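Please decode residue identities from the backbone states below.
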């Protein structure tokens, strides 16, 4: 019963997380676009940076941005914050339900580091908090005043964290951890900087004082960071569907490239929206990056260090390997504790099923080491090579 409950809890949380994320990213892309497209012209009210006409859903909108604040507070203000908070709250709950409670399968790979579930969850949560604190310290240090230097240091910092995580957790765990970490930094930017400073501005105005222009500038800086981090974080969150990304030898380098091409693609759109032309070179960089990712992802599992294949095996050997490493979970009645039904409906407990799923076996256990999860049933590199040889020989049925 408990299994069924966590299964449904995870489904509902995922649904909420994706919806909240769409609302958050949607509104933040919208405002970035609006902010960049505002045009200054004579005749605008005092304190207005620029205005812009928009058409949507059968009506016309006349948008204006007051640089610090309007001369008088409006009666009602719409705040944009619960999209971000809900995304984090649902995402963090999902992290606990799936990755911390299911650490044995989803977070730990004992061939990477022999951790208990409690240790793995502790390290994951601890590093989430400390990495955010380090980011906050970097932004507040003198480095924070130099955008390009801060971006470079931030980039190296995230790549170093990724490299570290791939040496502590399973590939899947590492990708989710770095994605969750960037997401946490982004939401913390809203919660700790952007909204509090906006509140200070509003309070100052209600008290009849002139708000400090610095407050808005601080919020703006963090909002720019969030803008550039959005594409990588969404890529990382979707990457768990692609074992060639997270469960191959150069998984950390793949993340390093994604952290580069995400911001480059954003730059293309930011530049266009600001009417500063279309930097088409960004797509060349993105395409080269994607090609590099595809190439790196073909390097195979980290554990398999030789590309030399053994002679093609008899099917009996293939079937023995899959039965002893996979079918305790992927069976009509799994015997693995905590696995109530065959995961994703994939059965690997008969010769016929093994033949039918040869393609999936190739992607999940030969070209990557996504399965067995965290190599929990200790499949050896030799066994993966035997399966590779069987596949290379055209998957003979005998
Ligand atoms: C300890 C239990 C366990 C073992 C052993 C195991 N798997 Fe899995 N398998 C899972 C779980 C859990 C999932 C679902 C993963 C998820 O939700 O992301 C899964 C998913 C899969 C999928 C579908 C993935 C998808 O997203 O479509 C394939 C294919 C697969 N396993 C193949 C294998 C192969 C091949 C082996 C043996 C080399 C194996 N599994 C061993 C638990 C196991």
């Amino acid at each position: 019963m408990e299994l069924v409950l966590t299964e449904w809890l995870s489904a509902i949380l995922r649904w909420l997380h994706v919806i909240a994320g769409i609302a958050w990213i949607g509104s933040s892309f919208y405002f970035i676009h609006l902010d960049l497209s505002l045009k200054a012209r004579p005749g605008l009210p005092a304190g207005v940076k620029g205005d812009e006409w928009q058409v949507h859903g059968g009506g016309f909108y006349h948008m204006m941005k007051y640089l610090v604040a309007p001369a008088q507070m409006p009666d009602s203000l719409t705040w944009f914050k619960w999209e971000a908070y809900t995304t984090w709250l649902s995402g963090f709950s999902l992290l606990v339900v799936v990755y911390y409670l299911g650490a044995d399968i989803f977070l730990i790979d004992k061939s990477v580091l022999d951790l208990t579930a409690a240790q793995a969850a502790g390290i994951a949560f601890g590093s989430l908090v400390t990495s955010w604190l380090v980011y906050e310290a970097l932004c507040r240090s003198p480095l924070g005043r130099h955008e390009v230097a801060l971006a470079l240091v931030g980039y190296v910092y995230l790549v170093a964290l990724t490299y570290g995580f791939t040496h502590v957790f399973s590939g899947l765990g590492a990708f989710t951890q770095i994605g969750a970490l960037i997401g946490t930094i982004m939401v913390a930017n809203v919660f700790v900087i952007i909204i509090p400073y906006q509140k200070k501005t509003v309070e100052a105005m209600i008290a009849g004082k002139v708000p400090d222009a610095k407050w808005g500038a601080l919020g703006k800086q963090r909002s720019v960071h969030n803008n550039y981090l959005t594409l990588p974080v969404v890529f990382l969150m979707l990457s768990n569907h692609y074992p060639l990304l997270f469960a191959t030898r150069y998984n950390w380098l793949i993340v390093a490239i994604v952290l580069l091409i995400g911001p480059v693609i954003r730059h293309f759109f930011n530049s266009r929206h600001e009417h500063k032309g279309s930097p088409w070179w960004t797509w060349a960089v993105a395409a080269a990056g994607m090609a590099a990712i595809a190439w790196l992802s073909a390097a195979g599992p980290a554990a398999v260090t030789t590309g030399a294949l053994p002679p093609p095996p008899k099917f009996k050997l293939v079937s023995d390997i899959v039965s002893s490493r996979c079918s305790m979970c992927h069976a009509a009645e799994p015997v693995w504790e905590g696995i109530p039904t065959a995961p994703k409906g994939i059965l690997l407990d008969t010769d016929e099923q093994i033949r039918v799923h040869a393609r999936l076996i190739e992607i999940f256990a030969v070209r990557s080491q996504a399965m067995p999860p965290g190599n929990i049933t200790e499949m050896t590199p030799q066994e993966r090579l035997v399966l590779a040889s069987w596949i290379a020989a055209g998957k003979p049925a005998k």
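Observation: Residues 329 and 336 are 6 Å apart (CA to CA).
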